[in-house]
Each structure stands twice: as structure tokens, then as C-alpha cells.
Amino acid sequence: MKRRILLALAGGTLVTAGALTLSMFIAPYPVVPLDSVRAAWRASDAWLLDRHGEPLSRVRVDHQRRRGDWITPAEVSPAFVAAVLAAEDRRFHAHAGVDWPGMIGAFWQTLTGGRRGGSTLTMQVAAAVHPKLARSGARDVLQKWRQMRQALAIERSWRKDEVLEAWLNLTPFRGELEGTDAAARALFGKRAAGLDRSESALLASLVRAPNARLAQVARRACALLALGVDSEECLLIQSMAAQGLRHGPARHAIGGDAPHLARRLLSAPGQRLVSTLDARVQRFAVETLTRHLHELNGRQVEDGALLVLDNPTGEIIAWVGSSGGLSNAGEVDGVTARRQAGSTLKPFLYALAIEKQLLTAASILDDSPLAVTTPAGLYVPQNYDHSFRGSVSLRQSLASSLNVPAVRTVTLVGHEAFYRQLKGLGFDTLDRDAHHYSYALALGGADVTLLQLTNAYRTLANGGWSGAVVTTPTAQTRDDEGEQVMTAQAAFIVGDILADPAARALTFGLASPLATRYAASVKTGTSKDMRDNWAVGYSDRYTVGVWVGNFSGKPMHDVSGVTGAAPVWREVMDFLQQGVEPAQREPPEGLVRQRVVYADGSEPAREEWFVAGTETATVTPVGSMAGRPRIESPANGAIYAVDPDIPRDRQRLTLRARAAARTAARGHWFEFDDGTRLRADAPQLWPPTPGRHEMALVDAQGTEIDRVRFEVRGLRRPGSGLASSR
Questions:
Q1: CA distance to 152, 163, 531, per residue, from 23 (Å)
Q2: Alpha carbon distance 402, 400 (integer Å)
Q3: What digits encode the pLDDT tens for the residues 370-386?
Q4: Domain Penicillin-binding protein transpeptidase spans what residues (predicted)?
Q5: Is CATH 3.40.710.10 the classification given to domain 316-619?
């Protein structure tokens, strides 16, 4: 009986051993080729490529885990491979997937209270490829057995270098880091090929316990290299662990040459998107903007942005969103940020006036003091240099960026019509109604973006045809997607004015960054308090827009459009025009070239462009406010207040009349509606009387030359019973 029991036990043992041996050749899961593993793998980052396939910027898209590039063993430092084998699998090249002596040792250590996994690199790869085989909290024997069977099956199909390649890319390290490339870049700021001996030991020591305490990881690395804890190299490793492992992932963000556009376009992990950017132009634009901002050091300038568009196609050739390291807000994209437009909207205003045939390029405009009553109060525009030129042509007014003639022009065409013109040009940031902006639109009293502004100037370059910009070659716009938003004739005349160095000499002189050796139309702009300045212009092929300022809103110190943005614009435009033959701009049909003579000699005779039917041979200024005395103070429509805390006999309102040349109005009188008369030869100090008043400026014969209406109000003193006088 006992013999039969022993035989049965022996037979059962043999059967069990045979079954276990046979099961070693049956994998829990089919073995997939390494090519399939590579194909299913995705980097956490995506790449923006230029039009020729050259990498420009790398952006992290997957924020659940961080993977770098897929790498081969040849792309990894030999020191790291040696450290990994020493730490994880000393007999890697000798076993067939399972290290049996290592497994027995691990089992014995477990029985004696130690902790050792015994998993080979191949077993770790098996768990990475099939997550159900990963070691769980239970760490049961059956799970380990299944993992061993899968590892044996993998080694029957894969070569050792393929196993090592998969391990290098699939192994988790610290936190969200997965794969050697991501770990090396994030923790040490370098590629895996550049890991030295100490870095390799630290990285290999993370595999067994990726989130262990830093001191423990450093001790393990020192032990791996057989270093004493007080040795110089071990102390270096401890310091490296404290710095790199704690702060590394946040420090080594990848930006590249076009990070702002990359963030807008890239959305899928592993994506490699071809854009319309040209790497050569993009890098030159970045370098040029950065260099010029360095040159403005000391003038409180931190930020800038630049955009280059291809005129015929709308393709974006360069997109520089910020000044990078110079900026305290480098993540802000200056190409799409809203900023004050300054004088850059004036070309569209004059194009509208020319299109409506209200003005021509030869028309005389009045550059003399002006006060406009608006719902928000009195609007008194000033020229940049606080002087006035009197009678000046539209050509000179636009090219020299005079402010007062622009405001007079918007009163002529109507601020509602100008508002509609800007909306049609794509200025969607005008999100209030026309009355909100009123006449200040003429001087850029609205928020725009560099993208909108540059594309609007591209509309001028394209003869009034407006179309969307293009960022990828597959997003080409169709011909029917554009719109004729202004006449080709008006666009051509405005472009001709903006390319005229003689016309802009009044303000900018003949030698400025705006003067090019090829035909280029350009306009600068500076917002209030020098918070923004712009230079936007175009050649036959390209439109370039530049913004310089501070994202914080701080004003710059003595930096205008011609000194801040214009030098950058000029250098980039020169770069784009290298090797390009200058082309003669062909006028569209419906234009007439006519010689013009100014009867008063205010401007030299010249050849001028006219919309057919508006041409003239002689321009004679008549009835201009710039040619006769006028009331400067008080301003028409103004409201003044008497201060109750100042004695009434100490308060005075200045009455002043000036002529265009800013000389006193000789032989003239101020005449009030109550019959009071005061001489206008010199400023008069008039005691303000509460109420509504009218005052005329009359000559010696009593002929009225100018008239203003204004109001003086008496304010209530706090706590008093006095009512305001109206």
C-alpha cells in the first residue's frame, strides 16, 4: 500500500514537472515583432517641421506620461548600458530570457527576509509589452511564472540587441518619465548618448525603485560603481541626485525656433507636422529681433514679435512670438496678442477716402490745431512732435504720419464707414461698436494683433484682395475664399505713397531704416506713452510685420516705431530680397498719371497718381483753416468747471487765437454773445462765469472768422447747500 502511494506521488510529481516544463514553451501571449512595438509606440512630444521637412520646434502634447525619441542601443552611452546590465541583469548575454541562478538567489533572499526581484531585462520587456504581466502589489508566484514564460518566448523570436532596444525605450524611470531618451533629457538636459559614468549609475539605480528617496538612489548608484560614500565621485553623485532628480523635468522644456506656432498647431503625440515656415528665414528673424532688442538695452524694452507672409499665397514664412530669454513673459505670443495700433491704421483710412473719391493723393489737408467733441468728451489730437505744418498734401500727411490731418479725414469719411472698412480687413479685435472708438480710430485707438495687421497690409500688396493666412501646405485657400475689400486703384495709390522716401522726409528724413534700395511700402506706428511700436510693410513678394514693446504694458524710454521696430523690419526685408531682381509695380486699370502744380508753391510740382476722373493739373488751397487765424482756447464744445475751493477772483480761463504759422492774430477781437469784446492780439485771462457761452473771433471790420461754444459749470462744495450752476 505504501509502495503504491509512493509510486503515485512520484508519478504525479513527474507529470507536474513535465507539465511545468512543457508550459515553459507556451507563452501566455503571442510574441509580437519588435517592428510592431516600434509602430505602436508614440512620443509624448510632437514636432513642427518647416516646408522642407527640417525640424523647428518640439512641443509636449501628452501630459500623462513623458516619452522622448525612440532610440537604438547605438544611440546610448556605453556607460549607461554597462550600468544597466550591472544593476539589473549581469548574465543578460548568457541566459535565454530567464536567469535561473538569479531567480534561485532572489527566492532565497525572499525566504530570508531580503528583497530582490530577479527579473531579467527580457522579463521586464515582457511586462512592458503586456501590462497584465506587470508585477502587481501581490507579486504572486503565478504572475512571475507567466512573465518568465513570455520572456523565454520573446528570446526565441528576438535578438539580444532587439530586447535591449525595447528595454531602453519602454522602461519607466522617475515620475512620468518613460524611456531612456526622456529620462536623459529631463533629468540631465542631454541626449542618452552623452550620459557619463555618474549619470548612468544614477539613471540605472532608478529602475528598481523609480520614486525612491533621493539619498537612497544616490547610495545605490555609489554602490553600483563600488565607490565609498565619502569619495569625491560619490559626493558628486549625491549632489547630482539632489539637483537633477528634484528639478530636472521642469527645467529642460523644449522650445526650438518656433514654439508659439508649434503650440497652436500640434495636437497629437508623435506628430510631425510640415508647416509653411522656412527654417532659414525663421532663424534669421529670431536672431535679428533678439539682437536689436539687446541693442535697446537700457530703454526698458523686453518684448517683440515678428511675422513674415508670402503675398500671393498667404503662407506664413516666419512666426516669432516673443524675444525668448529677454522676456519675462516668454510664453505670451506677441503675434496674436492685442496691442494698441498707433498710426498703422492710417493707410486704410486714406485708401477709403481715395476709393470714395473724397480725396486724392494731391489733395491739400489742414494740419492745424483741432478739437473734436465726442460722447466721451473733447478729443484734441496732436502730432508726434507737437507742431503743425499748415497746408499739406495727403501724400505727405500719410507718408510722414501726421495725426491731425488723419483725424480730419476720418471726420470726412465718417468713423462708422472707417470702422466697417477695418472689420472687412479682418480686425476682429474691434469688439465694440463704431461709436465707442469714434475719431480715435484714425490714430490707432483700438486693439489689434500683429497677425491681423500684417495680413491687412498684405491686402494692400495684393491690390485690395483679402484672404486668410496659411500655416500648413495642406491648408491652401481657394481663390473663392478671398474678398475684394478695397479697390485696386486705392490700394495701389496708398502703396505708392508708403514707398515714397521724399514724401516721408518731412518727419523721418531721407536716411532712415524705411528707405530701401528696392520698392517697399512701409508704415510705422507708436502707441500712447510709447507702450507699443510697429513697422509693417511689403515688397512685391513678402509682407513683414514687427512689434516691439512690453507685454507688461510698461512704457519704453524714447523708443518709437522708426527706432524700435523699423530696423528689425528693414533687416528682415533685406534678407528676403537677397538675389531678387527689383520689379516695377504695374498700376491697375483705372489710374491716371498726371503732373500736378501747387499754385501757392507749398509743395514742389510732381507726377501724381489719380483715380480716373479725379485728376487735376493745378491744386489751389482755398478757405483752409490753416491759412487764417482761429480760436485755440477755449476749445469748441469744451466744459470747464469752477473749483469751489479756490477763490473765484483767482480763477481765469485763457482766451487765445493763433494763425497757421503760430503767430498772434493781429487786429482781431474776441466777441462774446453778451457783446463783451477783448483784443485777440495776445492771450487774455477771462474770469469764468457759470453758464453756456459763445465766443467769436472777428477782424477789425467785425467780420466773423471763427466761433466756439463752451460751458462753465459751478461745482458743489461738499457739505454745502449750494447747487451747481449750469
A1: 11, 22, 76
A2: 6
A3: 766 555 555 566 666 66
A4: 304-540
A5: yes
